[in-house]
Amino acid sequence: MSNPLKKILVVGGGTAGWLTAAVLAAAHDARMESGIRVTLIESPDVSTIGVGEGTWPSMRDTLSRIGVSERDFIRECSASFKQGSKFVGWRTGDNKEFYYHPFSLPQGYLNANLVPYWQAEHANISFASAFSSQEALCQLGKAPKQPETPEFAAVANYAYHLDAGKFATFLRQHCTQKLGVQHVLDHVTGVNSADSGDIASLSTRGHGDVVADLFIDCTGIASLLLGRHFGVPFVSKKEVLFNDRAVAMQVPYAEGNDAISSATIATAQRAGWIWDIGLPSRRGVGYVYSSNHASDEEAEETLRSYVKSDPRSCPSIDIVARKLSFNPGFRKEFWHRNCVAVGMSAGFIEPLEASAIALVELSAAMIRDQLPANRRVMETVARRFNQRFSYHWERVIEFLKLHYVLSSRSDSEYWRDHRREEGIPRRLTELLELWQFQPPSRHDFLQAEEIFPSASYQYVLYGMGFSTHQRSTSCRRDSFEQADRYYKENKSQIERQINGLPSNRELINHLARETH
Ligand SMILES: Cc1cc2nc3c(=O)[nH]c(=O)nc-3n(C[C@H](O)[C@H](O)[C@H](O)COP(=O)(O)OP(=O)(O)OC[C@H]3O[C@@H](n4cnc5c(N)ncnc54)[C@H](O)[C@@H]3O)c2cc1C
To answer: Could you give the CA distance from residue 98 to residue 225 in angstroms, rounded to a whole number?
Structure first.
């Protein structure tokens, strides 16, 4: 019988490192003598990536499980409420045209086939507004809950926008003060192997060799352990999703109490798209683009004119632009021997739909739930982990590509290139063929923990103007009557919520005023 797993070393103190440490420490009693020991080491010399402001609703469960107060989190991370994404200019390039991908499932989604009814009766309004209240709520800057709603509970499904730097600090304090995580501030200088080929310890500049049973690589793009030490190959996806650069800015509001947007706004550009995220204190804005289709100067120019043209931007401030580059893709495997990569060290694809932190949460949760009792059973857990996350990465890539292939924009090479057959994953091509005759459904996505369920595909597909021609038996009177009930239910829900919910800004201000 091999020795029980007792010590976990997380390397890296970005969002991935601290979230993973928190999830493991909370579930495996790191504070107690009998628990698993969790140590996190981060370099004082290598800064975190410092972006990553959009999350998924899964974050509510993650934060609640690690025992933080939602109010403290909102205040200390300059967080706001996010109810989905608004895509502007993706279909034709006209910036007056938009659609939403809200977080709530369409009303009645699990019981009725809504699409034929919507196409026949309400095609003059968006699919999202016919069956979800969140398009209307976001258009009005409404919050997803009332001040009295309990922490982490929702009236309308929500996630958060947050300040990434403050989030890492918040998690660090919680991990070290409440969860018993040991924190080492030091630079890892080498990896020492055991005879078996496993990692035995890591050499550090000031703390000697640090030993552990399981090493979690959260070293960001460096991928120090999985990539550099073990040489696990990188699978590039640049031929599918071209974006490999970003330029980012933090933009103060013109008026301190300006409305805070309740959705991430993603506005399509000639060589990529601009994200616009509203935090209570500022907006986070950035242009993600393809270096094959625009120069860095062009990209910065595009972003600056976007910011300038928005009346919410403070006109007198000269804003510094931060440049980032990345290689879109992921590692061939994520768990190798006694090392598992989480976060950017495992891979990264452009932040459209903000799936990176959601993948961190899913990875941390699987490590938590399947934590191998000892080294002998680790291979089995690793194999399952690799299968599960290869599946997730491929689905994320297909879903993001969907946003591009459905566009009819032809104003630049970038958009035309996105529709070239050789860059479209085969499974996506097959599904698009199928969806001409039946809407996306649960039969297309079989895992229990799909990152993007079929409802997400419906929102994007029909938001982008896709048509599904269904056989007449799908358009029967009884199924229309059922869908009609859900449509009417949604309409009255919209009215109730608009009247009953405060604005995003009002709710944030209320939480900021409230004392413990
Ligand atoms: C432009 C852009 C926008 C993004 N937007 C979103 C978004 O909206 N939503 C979303 O979910 N995700 C987004 N992401 C991704 C998100 O930022 C990351 O997934 C998240 O921040 C996790 O990063 P990380 O912790 O893996 O890496 P990092 O933040 O880079 O942290 C790496 C850590 O490793 C440590 N380290 C490195 N080398 C050593 C060493 N030798 N010794 C010790 N420590 C070391 C560093 O000190 C640091 O603490 C975005 C990414 C980019 C590039």
So the answer is: 43
Domain CATH code at residue 202: 3.50.50.60
pLDDT tens digits for range 355-403: 999 999 999 999 999 999 999 999 999 999 999 999 999 999 999 999 9
Name the residue with the closest Cα to ligand 1, atom 37.
219
Q: Are residues 167 and 228 in the same domain?
A: yes
The response to whether residue 272 sits with its C-beta less than 6 Å from ligand 1 reads no
What is the Cα–Cα distance from 403 to 446, expressed in whole angstroms?
21
Considering the domain architecture, whether residues 195 and 255 belong to the same structural domain is answered as: no
**Domain-terminating residue out of 366, 390, 414:** 390
- Closest C-alpha to 343, from 457, 225, 450, 238: 225
Q: Which atom of ligand 1 lies at the shortest distance from residue 218's CA?
A: 26
Cα(218) to ligand 1 centroid in Å equals 8
In a domain, 492, yes or no: no
Residue 6's pLDDT band (cuts 50, 70, 90): very high
Q: What is the 360 CA–ligand 1 centroid distance (Å)?
A: 11
- Tell me: the pLDDT tens digits for 398-431? 999 999 999 999 999 999 999 999 999 999 999 9
The domain total for the chain is 2
Across residues 17-37, what is the average pLDDT? 97
Ligand 1 centroid–CA 50 distance in Å is 7
Three-class DSSP category at 312:
coil
> Is the domain of 214 the same as that of 198?
yes
Judged by phi (left if over 0) then psi (alpha if -120 to 50, else beta), residue 84 lies in left
- Structural domain containing residue 217: 7-53+163-235+329-390
Atom in ligand 1 nearest the alpha carbon of residue 357: 11
Nearest CA to ligand 1 atom 35: 12
